[in-house]
Amino acid sequence: MFNKLKNKINKGDKNPYGYEHLQSLNNYSHLQPSTSQQHPNNPSYTPPSQTQQGFSSGEQYQPPSGPPTSYGRAPSSYYAPPPGPPPSQQPPPVHDWTVIPDTSLLPPPPSIGYEKSPAANATDEESDRAAAWTEANPLWPPASLSSEVYDMIQNARLTLLDAPTYAGDVVSQKQPGHWKCRSKVHCRDSSLLTNLPLYSVYWDSPVHTQRPKTIYFEVKLKGIRKGGSSLAAADAGLAIGFIAPPYPTFRFPGWQRGSLAIHGDDGRKYVNDTFGGVDFTAVFSPGEVLGIGMTFAPPKQASSYDQRKQGNILDIEVFFTRNGVRQGGWDGNEELDQRSPGGAIGLRGECDLFPAIGVFGGVEFEVFFHQSQWIYNPLTL
């Protein structure tokens, strides 16, 4: 192969590699000297003079002194952009990271739960017994109430039932729905429940009615038998909430499955929370009227698959009042942590709900179930 190439070169073949098609594309004739003072492909380029281009074999090539004549000078046909960024693209603002942010503009921190309440008087044995009790007694399905019974509920003709552990008096008053109670100093943890629910799935569920339903009641703390300006300073307690039956009445509402409550001895809310609850409000004091309510409503947005899987098919709001003024609440569908096994089961509108008043120690109080007796009326809002 080398001998063939050598023969081609000896014969004067100008394209010995056979790349004839590149010869026409690479016609370098335009690089030959011409009468023009500029390079034909670059008007700003001035070729060197003939005396610089040609040199004898004995001479050493010397480059021209200094930079090219066009060095440092923009060509006449060169486009120079305007100084600075385009008017529509201003530089992004620079954040001063040394400035301390205003924490009042930040969302509130998440609620912190506690392992134990400072006012707790229940033993671990009672907690274990209650857990075994709820395990052996599953939630009741909704009851099919007659129209006569439902009318009794609407007119607040409810009977307040004491618990086996309750020591004290429970006295009905002339007006339906009004009760006076006085527990003794040695009264153990007890939950007083009504004989009929305030929320009936059969009659009230927005799934069937397509309208909201609000349940509410109030309790007036009249006094503490063993002194103290508040429940936090006395060996006594009062709680208000709701439960889905059946419920171990030797426990405060909010501690076991299917229950929620606000406890007046520590000001915390409890939702199926056997531990120490979550900070919510100030402790209850004698002379105050406390109220708790729940509103069930058709969802404003279609429920997602995850919501239906968890049983969250209604919009639920829990709210609390003190002396006729609303003082906060929470979303009944909020996610609960591992301290609440089963989550808010029984409280999502799928079970009948009963009002519950938790008591221990010596406490004097009144209960109001009828709308005409409330100092706060959620039904007019």
TrEMBL record:
It is found in: Membrane. Residues 23-63 have a biased composition (Polar residues). Residues 70-79 have a biased composition (Low complexity). Its main location: membrane. Residues 1-129 are annotated as: Disordered. It comes from Periconia macrospinosa. Residues 80-94 have a biased composition (Pro residues). Keywords: Membrane, Transmembrane, Transmembrane helix. PANTHER family: RAN BINDING PROTEIN 9-RELATED. CDD domains: SPRY_SSH4_like (cd12910). This is SPRY domain-containing protein. One of its GO terms (cellular component) is membrane. It comes from the Eukaryota.
